[in-house]
């Protein structure tokens, strides 16, 4: 699949995409990212891509015309993939959307800066607006990288252990359980001994699976009760899950 990124800051993408999991997805040819520096599509000597808002107020607005030239250049090279605009007023990005996109043709990713983009461009060209959540960033580049990272790691063979997907938080609608590795007993500088939960050393696979499930349920019930409600409504909680949840004092 192919992603075309329209941005004022193309240099922000290279170092991140050239590391780790994202790099493997790109080297395998499964994900192809093309960067389109918006300033290259300005039409005047000052390379202007923004101007003051009609009606007054603070900040600047990204101009329609450079954006339309950039999108036309993308369309001349790539297919008719959907245009995604990253915006604080967008729908919140989630794992269900990434899973859907991971099997698709890719997208044109439009990263805004300043106060935003002229609404007439958005109305004419944007298919989907996505937000990372209710906090303020300075532009759409980090959200675009978050989407690319999330999709890259879903490509076949990109995670070292394919089963890691299934255990991801959100893939089954619950938060992940805690993880432990060596040493079995950790001695802190204060002289405390911190053992690994004994069940994990027991070799009883069914008991380990049950402990992990219960840890997930407990953490999710405490931190994200909204996810418990969704799982219950979708019939994804077993009788054993419900019995365990009933024992919890939140
Ligand atoms: C004063 C109104 N501001 C909205 C809170 C204007 C504004 C702030 C920050 C407009 C754009 C931005 C830049 N943010 C993004 O481009 C952005 C974003 C974000 O700020 N938070 C979460 N997700 C996203 S996706 C793109």
From TrEMBL:
Its EC number is 2.1.1.228. InterPro entries: Alpha/beta_knot_MTases, tRNA_m1G_MeTrfase_C_sf, tRNA_m1G_MeTrfase_TrmD, tRNA_m1G_MTases_N, tRNA_MeTrfase_TRMD/TRM10. It comes from the Bacteria. HAMAP family: TrmD. Coiled coil: none annotated. Homodimer. This is tRNA (guanine-N(1)-)-methyltransferase. Keywords: Cytoplasm, Methyltransferase, S-adenosyl-L-methionine, Transferase, tRNA processing. It is an enzyme of class 2 (transferase). It is found in: Cytoplasm. It comes from Ideonella azotifigens. The keyword tRNA processing applies.
């Amino acid at each position: 699949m192919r992603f075309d990124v329209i941005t004022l800051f193309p240099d922000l993408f290279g170092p991140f995409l050239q590391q780790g999991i994202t790099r493997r997805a790109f080297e395998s040819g499964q994900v192809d990212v093309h960067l389109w520096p918006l300033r290259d599509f300005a039409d005047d000597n000052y390379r202007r891509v923004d101007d003051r808002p009609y009606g007054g107020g603070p900040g600047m607005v990204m101009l329609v015309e450079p954006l339309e030239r950039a999108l036309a250049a993308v369309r001349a090279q790539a297919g008719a993939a959907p245009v995604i605009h990253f915006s604080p007023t967008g729908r919140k990005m989630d794992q269900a959307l990434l899973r859907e996109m991971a099997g698709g043709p890719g997208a044109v990713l439009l990263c805004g800066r300043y106060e935003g983009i002229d609404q007439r461009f958005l109305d004419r060209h944007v298919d989907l607006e996505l937000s990372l959540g209710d906090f303020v960033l300075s532009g759409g580049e980090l959200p675009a990288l978050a989407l690319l990272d999330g999709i890259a790691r879903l490509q076949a063979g990109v995670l070292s252990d394919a089963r890691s997907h299934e255990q991801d938080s959100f893939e089954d609608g619950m938060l992940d359980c805690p993880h432990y590795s060596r040493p079995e007993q950790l001695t802190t500088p204060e002289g405390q001994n911190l053992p690994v939960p004994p069940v994990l050393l027991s070799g009883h696979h069914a008991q380990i699976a049950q402990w992990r499930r219960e840890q997930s349920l407990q953490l999710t019930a405490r931190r994200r009760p909204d996810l418990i409600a969704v799982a219950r409504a979708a019939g994804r909680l077993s009788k054993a899950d419900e019995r365990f949840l009933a024992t919890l004092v939140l």
